[in-house]
Specification:
It is a single chain. The protein has 2 helices and 24 strands. With about 325 residues, it is mainly beta. It has a domain at about 85-270: Methylamine Dehydrogenase, Chain H (7 Propeller). Strands 3-2-1-24 form a 4-stranded antiparallel β-sheet, with no helix packed on it. β2 (about 55-60) and β3 form a beta hairpin. The protein starts with 6 loop residues before the first helix and ends with a strand.
Length: about 325
């Protein structure tokens, strides 16, 4: 649990400073305090994981390959025990609101907005139907996409007493797997089957409506991940067979030349010095490593079941 202070690090500290052994309470208190007031170091690169071996969202220091932060609904006091199963098989985790929050969802149907600094669950609800992706709308509402449920769900994120009573509006979407809100263009994007669909949002918080405004064919079926390219007017798209780049301005779609294009669960890019990272399953739908587009390992930890990975940018 105290990822900042692994057993290895504690043993090293005790060898260097034996007197610390007489202050276990102070040491543990500081460790907990550090873990519950976590902020990213601007000199480091971090990767957010949707990690299923422990049904959690985790943040990895890409330089040291250490997990430095995690949000586990099963042990959170702000997630009711009867709702923990909503977050089994974490399926997406994205940085939002200037990298101060993470928006997450799980195949179990749960959707949550988490503040990174103290791990507080700011909102959570239930979409169901094998939820695969989420996006934050400009009024603070949250929209999710569910694959077997064949739906988009908008959650009205007013102060909530009971998640079961949260206002939710559903809209049909075949095999919902991905969502991107483009704040510059004020559009919601998804790829369903072989159609890149653009939705218009009415920006009425208490009565939210999504209206399909455009649809463009893509050159493959089985759409999975859709994610914004870092500071570009383009989107990454992964399908069963390939990775594509969608150029939003001219609506052109091109195949990305890489031998690691098949069955990619997530793709994320960054500025100079950040390789584009992908998740390609080793077993069923998960893996224990994050790769770049050339297949080089960026992070690996045996026993993990990583479903998606995003740069914390």
């Amino acid at each position: 649990m105290l990822q900042h202070f692994s057993c290895r690090k504690i043993n090293v500290l005790l060898k260097l400073f034996p007197f610390l052994s007489i202050f276990p309470f102070i040491f543990l208190f500081n460790a907990v305090n550090a873990q519950t007031n976590w902020h990213p170091d601007s000199r480091k690169k971090y990767i957010i994981l949707a990690e299923q071996s422990k049904s959690r969202v985790a943040i990895v220091d890409a330089g040291s390959s250490e997990i430095v932060w995690e949000w586990r609904p099963a042990v959170r006091s702000d997630i009711a025990p009867q709702h923990a199963h909503w977050f089994e098989a974490m399926s997406d985790a994205k940085p939002v609101k200037n990298k101060k929050f993470i928006l997450a969802c799980a195949s179990g149907g749960g959707v949550a907005l988490i503040r990174i600094a103290d791990k507080k669950t700011m909102f959570y609800g239930y979409a169901g139907g094998n939820t695969h992706s989420v996006a934050l709308l400009p009024d603070g509402n949250i929209v999710s996409a569910s694959s077997t449920g064949n739906q988009l769900s908008i959650f009205v994120t007013t102060a909530q007493a009971e998640p079961e009573k949260t206002v939710r509006k559903d809209f049909p979407l075949h095999d919902g797997h991905n969502l991107v809100w483009d704040s510059r263009k004020n559009w919601l994007f998804t790829v369903s089957g072989n159609q890149w669909i653009t939705y218009r949002y009415n920006n009425e918080k208490m009565n939210p409506v999504l209206t399909a405004a455009d649809s463009v064919s893509v050159p493959d079926n089985g759409a999975h991940d859709l994610y914004k390219m870092f500071k570009k007017d383009s989107l990454w798209l992964s399908t069963h067979a390939a990775i594509f780049a969608i150029h939003m301005n001219n609506k052109k779609i091109r195949k990305v030349n890489t031998r690691f294009g098949e069955n990619i669960k997530s793709i994320s890019s960054g500025p100079k010095g950040y390789p584009t990272i992908i998740i390609q399953p080793k077993e069923k739908w998960w893996t224990d490593e994050v790769l770049d587009l050339a297949g080089n390992p960026i992070f690996r930890q045996e026993g993990l079941r990583i479903y998606k990975a995003r740069w914390l940018l």
